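Students often ask why inverse folding is considered easier than folding. One informal answer: many sequences map to the same fold, so there is more than one right answer. In these notes we will look at a single instance of the problem. The structure comes first.
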């Protein structure tokens, strides 16, 4: 299991980039920064490019997905592109009826709640991922020495949408299923792990230099449930990419109490949300794990002096860790002024790494 010699991580393009260096705990030439949801509604060029095309349809048009991925890199001078796609794309490509409803999120035609529902889930054919591989290849050809980050949804977060059939606040459906019907839960989490794993592997093999597993809703779980019912499936999702040499990041929100088990699924870097200062996150992880995060997205609309002080505090707290990639503590809000993001990037790059 190795990457091809012409992969950006292997042929010298990205291996010593600031992002990959920091992910590996090596001192970077400048302090790296990118933003979750940097490709999206905060950019007028995104809204223009997407006009008349559905969200999931856009993800499956390689030239469009590539263009949208490149937009924030051109505009902000961030240190990575994040592949424009969605965590439910592997479901869609497997043939599960799912759409993204604007202002709502992922909605399934039929929720997956019983053993029979899970048994009826289709398999994801490898060839169905070809539009993803094509979009990644087009993108890395343009990015040069800037690494592309591939991603996938973690099994719990995917299952949260599948069981509820739509976004929910407390994720009662999947959390009940774990206890009420653990066998069905395991089968569902295993299915989600496999399709997410295939999706992430396709991106890394096609040219992504790092991978991020998003377990956005893992914070709704207590530590015992996380370790028993969720961590094994998240580890399984990464089994197909762990040996490839691309650094792996694991991120969720509200995860202050489960940072260590999230790291223990076998990742190189832990993404921290805005709730926990990075020096405390570093302490909880024993001081050996590079971190990513955690500017509070709410402060992007604060007066510049307030935001600047916050960014400097995040950078200072992050310097406790063996590596730090600056990011937000969750995604860019759609109403963010993109010029503020550009200013934040140049502020971060101006601080000695
Ligand atoms: O810039 C990037 O981060 C890359 C692309 C990306 C998207 N979704 C594009 C997108 C990534 C990495 C994701 C991951 C994703 N999708 C997650 C994990 C990260 C997180 O935010 O916690 C989750 C939970 C989803 C599911 C999802 N997709 C939600 C909750 C929504 C928002 C619904 C809404 O309209 O408010 C989406 C839609 C989505 N995914 C958009 C984008 C740019 C908005 C689509 C639009 O333009 O209308």
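Output (designed amino acids):
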């Amino acid at each position: 299991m190795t990457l091809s010699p012409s992969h950006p991580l292997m042929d010298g393009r990205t291996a010593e980039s600031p992002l990959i260096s920091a992910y590996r705990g090596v001192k970077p030439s400048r302090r790296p920064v990118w933003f979750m949801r940097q490709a999206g509604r905060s950019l007028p060029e995104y809204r223009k490019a997407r006009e008349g095309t559905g969200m999931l349809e856009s993800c499956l048009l390689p030239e469009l997905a590539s263009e949208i991925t490149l937009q924030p890199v051109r505009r902000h001078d961030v240190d990575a592109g994040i592949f424009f796609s969605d965590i439910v794309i592997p479901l869609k490509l497997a043939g599960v009826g799912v759409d993204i409803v604007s202002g709502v999120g992922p909605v399934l035609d039929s929720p997956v709640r019983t053993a029979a529902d899970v048994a009826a889930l289709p398999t994801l054919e490898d060839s169905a991922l070809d539009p993803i591989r094509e979009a990644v290849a087009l993108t890395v050809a343009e990015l040069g020495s800037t690494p592309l980050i591939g991603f996938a949804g973690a099994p719990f977060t995917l299952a949260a949408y599948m069981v509820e059939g739509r976004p929910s606040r407390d994720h009662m459906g999947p959390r009940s299923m774990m206890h009420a019907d653990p066998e069905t839960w395991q089968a569902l989490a295993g299915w989600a792990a496999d399709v997410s794993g295939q999706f992430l592997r396709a991106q890394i093999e096609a040219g992504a230099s790092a991978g991020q597993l998003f377990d956005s809703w893992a914070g709704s779980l207590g530590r015992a449930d996380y370790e028993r019912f969720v961590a094994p499936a998240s580890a399984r999702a990464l089994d197909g990419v762990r040996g490839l040499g691309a650094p792996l990041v694991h991120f969720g929100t509200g995860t202050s109490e489960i940072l260590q088990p999230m790291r223990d699924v076998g990742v190189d870097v832990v993404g921290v949300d805005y709730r926990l200062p990075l020096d405390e996150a570093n302490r909880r992880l024993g001081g050996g794990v590079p971190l990513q995060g955690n500017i509070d997205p709410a402060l992007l609309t604060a007066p510049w002096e307030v935001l600047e002080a916050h960014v400097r505090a995040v950078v200072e707290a992050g310097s406790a860790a063996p590596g730090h990639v600056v990011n937000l503590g969750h995604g860019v809000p759609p109403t963010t002024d993109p010029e503020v993001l550009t200013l934040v990037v140049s502020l971060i790059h101006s601080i000695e790494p």
